[in-house]
């Protein structure tokens, strides 16, 4: 994903565009095959919009999404249909999009039917197998959506994402509505399924404990931008960006011997309609300097695989680091 932007126009009463909500404002990251990459941040930071924009459920304003060497932003609707088989989405509440008058089995067979996969009997077998793998009994194939509990519903959401045998699933807060005990069941199931089905996850969450549990790497978002990226353990042990430090200082450290500095943030998240100049975090950052208001910080690799966009880290410093490591 390169420099991806999604700006929503806001129109005045005459229908003229007067402004934009810069929901996603130039994010770049790589997704490695077979990994779980988490986009984490407070609500409204643009992480869900990022997920939807990558799948072009909403059209990007700018930027590239390269998949198997091609920019899918340029694809026509027919080409996109093929890509959608490979990239699925899982939501917080899968049931808002399930037809309450249809049986679960029928709902799960629909995508196979649309894409012309198998004869009716074969489609039923595929769905039965998948339901069985996800812990359902055969007779549950004939049940209606309302007959399932929250955790079961999310497993049905997963079944729906898996039915086309995708490469990538974008999971948008898939466990946020569930009790903690059910959350870990679903997270563990996602992990098992990942190995079995060779899946890559882009996992979107505001919940750091969930992210710590499931993420191989994480990208921290603030006001439409990614401010820090790196391996999950590394970021939890040694966060570099002041915003990441602030987020993490609110939860217990994984290493009790290593005390975290407690960072309190002032004020509210500014509006994405008119985000602050320079580093968008400068209005709340306890370390803000003059340059922070004027210049947008570059994304620098400050530790191996750990990237930070903050003026506290300089290109020279990052380079020096590289030299001493070598
Ligand atoms: Fe704080 Fe400046 Fe770094 Fe932004 S660039 S996080 S304002 S120190
Ligand atoms: Mg969201």
From TrEMBL:
Record keywords: ATP-binding, Nucleotide-binding, Transport
Outline the extent of the ABC transporter domain.
1-248
| Family matches, as SMART domains | AAA
What Pfam families does its record include? ABC_tran, oligo_HPY
Please give the superkingdom of this protein's source: Bacteria
Q: Which Gene3D superfamilies match?
A: P-loop containing nucleotide triphosphate hydrolases
Q: Which InterPro entries does UniProt cross-reference here?
A: AAA+_ATPase, ABC_transp_ATP-bind, ABC_transporter-like_ATP-bd, ABC_transporter-like_CS, Oligopep_ABC_C, P-loop_NTPase
- List the Gene Ontology MF annotations in alphabetical order: ATP binding; ATP hydrolysis activity
* Biological processes per GO annotation: peptide transport; transmembrane transport
Task: Give the family from UniProt.
Answer: Belongs to the ABC transporter superfamily.
Q: What is this protein called?
A: Dipeptide ABC transporter ATP-binding protein
């Amino acid at each position: 994903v390169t420099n991806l932007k999604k700006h929503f126009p806001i129109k005045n009463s005459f229908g003229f565009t007067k402004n934009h909500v810069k929901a996603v404002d130039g994010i770049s990251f790589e997704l490695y095959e077979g990994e779980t990459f988490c986009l984490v941040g407070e609500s409204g930071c643009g992480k869900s919009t990022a997920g939807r924009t990558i799948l072009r459920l909403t059209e990007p304003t700018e930027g590239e999404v390269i998949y198997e060497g091609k920019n899918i932003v340029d694809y026509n609707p027919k080409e996109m249909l093929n890509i959608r088989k490979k990239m699925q989405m899982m939501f917080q509440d899968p049931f808002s999009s399930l037809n309450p008058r249809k049986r679960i089995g029928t709902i799960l067979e629909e995508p196979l039917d649309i894409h012309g996969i198998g004869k009716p009997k074969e489609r039923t077998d595929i769905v039965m197998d998948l339901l069985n793998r996800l812990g359902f009994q055969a007779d549950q194939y004939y049940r209606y959506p309302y007959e399932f509990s929250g955790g079961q519903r999310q497993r049905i959401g997963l079944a729906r994402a898996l039915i086309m045998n995708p490469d990538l699933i974008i999971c948008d807060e898939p466990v946020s509505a569930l009790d903690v005990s059910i959350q870990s069941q679903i997270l563990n199931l996602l992990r098992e399924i990942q190995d079995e089905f060779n899946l890559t996850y882009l996992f979107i969450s505001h919940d750091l404990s969930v992210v710590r549990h499931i993420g191989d790497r994480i990208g921290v978002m603030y006001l439409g931008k990614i401010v820090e990226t790196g391996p999950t353990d590394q970021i939890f042990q040694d966060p570099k960006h002041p915003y990441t430090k602030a987020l993490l200082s609110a939860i217990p450290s994984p290493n009790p011997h290593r005390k975290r500095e407690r960072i309190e943030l002032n004020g509210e998240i500014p509006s994405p309609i008119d985000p602050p100049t320079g580093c968008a975090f400068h209005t709340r950052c306890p370390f803000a300097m003059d340059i922070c208001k004027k210049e947008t910080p570059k994304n620098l690799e400050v530790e191996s695989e750990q990237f930070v966009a903050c003026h506290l880290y300089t290109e020279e410093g990052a380079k020096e680091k590289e030299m001493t490591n070598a």
